[in-house]
Design a protein that fits this description.
By secondary structure, the protein is of the alpha+beta class. Helix content is about 45%, strand content about 20%. The chain contains six helices and five strands. About 25% of the residues are buried.
Length: about 170
């Protein structure tokens, strides 16, 4: 297990321990919940244990929205987890995770976000793929930052996109 996986497993253990209290606060008798619900609640809690909201907001002052810089601050979390936590903030954005050129995840905190990339996202992904270095592309109404994820047996790229009127 990598250190990141160990920390995620520990965070999941904490989430399991506090799950009954969360369920009680939701008005659900612990033990009577559907397994899907408990899995969903844990999936919401684990990233917040690894990347607490207050600390994330504080780190943004120095790191801005640079995912690798934020990953250094939150060393126990994966780059993907750090990027996806940005969706929990007020700043509107789209996060895409691309594996070997295929969109694996594309989510937004304010815009409709299917698997289809915007032109700025496609061009940024191509540039990151070619040079394996962070890139920034502004095209149309969008600005996209992209980063290669190191240490994977395949090429993974994380994109963060914002509409220019939201910058």
């Amino acid at each position: 297990m990598t250190p990141e996986q160990q920390h995620k497993a520990a965070a999941d253990g904490i989430a399991r321990a506090i799950l009954p209290e969360i369920l009680r606060k939701l008005g659900i008798m612990p033990g009577s919940e559907d397994k899907t619900l408990s899995t969903h609640v844990r999936s919401l809690v684990v990233p917040r244990i690894l990347i607490p909201s207050r600390l994330l907001r504080a780190a943004l002052r120095e790191c801005k929205y640079d995912v690798p810089a934020l990953k250094e601050v939150f060393a126990t979390a994966t780059m993907e987890a750090v990027a996806l936590r940005l969706l929990d903030l007020d700043a509107p954005c789209v996060i895409a995770i691309i594996d070997d050129g295929v969109v694996a995840v594309r989510r937004s905190n304010q815009f409709p976000a299917g698997k289809m990339l915007e032109a700025a996202e496609r061009n940024c992904q191509v540039k990151v793929s070619e040079v394996e270095l962070p890139q920034r592309v502004r095209q149309g109404e969008w600005t996209t930052q992209g980063w290669p994820v190191p240490g994977r047996p395949f090429q993974r790229i994380i994109l963060r996109s914002v509409r220019d009127d939201d910058v």
